[in-house]
Amino acid sequence: MSDQHSLATYVSDMLAVERHVRIPFETQRNDADVQEYVDAASVVNRLAALSEMHADALKVQLDRLGGQETSPIKSAVTEIEGVVAGAIDKVRKTKVSKALRDDYTALALCCASYSELLATAVGMSDDDVAGLAQRHLTDYANAIMRIGDCIPSIVLRELNVTPGVEVDTAAVDRSRQEISNAWNSTARAFHETTATSAGNSARAS
Fold first, then answer.
1. CB 18 within 8 Å of CB 137
2. 79-98 pLDDT, tens per residue?
3. Which of 31, 61, 82, 152 could serve as a FRET partner for 103 with CA atoms 20 to 30 Å apart?
4. Which pTM does this prediction carry?
């Protein structure tokens, strides 16, 4: 199998993933409950637009490589079905925070898939696909951060209108700060560990 044909297969699988995750994004974009929450609606509308744009860009690369769209849906998409199943609902009955949680999980899988595609393209010296994968990975990494930022306010607002439940809606800022601290401290520790490992490897060589 040639490198071009092999890369086309990876691009085709990623295109199938994008087409699949677009289903819940579109469902949520057209759902009145989601649209009632301005912050959630902003995220969902952006996700629907991104998934469509990503799919179009992947199709261009697939055509360039001479590949065919994956049919039927292969394992890469089968894995994501269970992740987003809760978000694919004819009538959106789950809470908005649950929908965003499903989106967050689906996007994490997309990010891992784009990381694989990026590494594959770099390894096969295809700058076009590598650049595309990097851009799309950045788009979804940003979306994950936006979801994490708006989840506290949505969760507390939903709880606040739940009969028999009392919450301090002023806790939104503290919750956001604690979440941010968790990510920032983890990022610092990760980079320090990576830098140490790189230094040790350089000295060993």
1. no
2. 555 545 444 444 443 479 99
3. 61
4. 0.82
Q: Report the C-alpha gap between 39 and 26 in whole angstroms.
A: 16
Structure tokens at 58: 């992947």
**Interatomic CA distance for residues 11 and 7, integer angstroms:** 6
132-149 tens-digit pLDDT: 999 999 999 999 999 999
Tokens of 53: 């744009």
Tell me what the mean pLDDT of segment 179-196 comes to. 84
Name the CATH superfamily for 3-166: Ferritin, core subunit, four-helix bundle (1.20.1260.10)
Indicate if the alpha-carbon torsion angle 189, 47, 43, 31 is positive or negative: negative
Residue boundaries of the structural domains of the chain? 3-166, 168-205
The residue whose two tokens read 């065919």 is 68
Closest CA to 28 of 12, 11, 42, 8: 42
- The residue whose two tokens read 């989840």 is 151
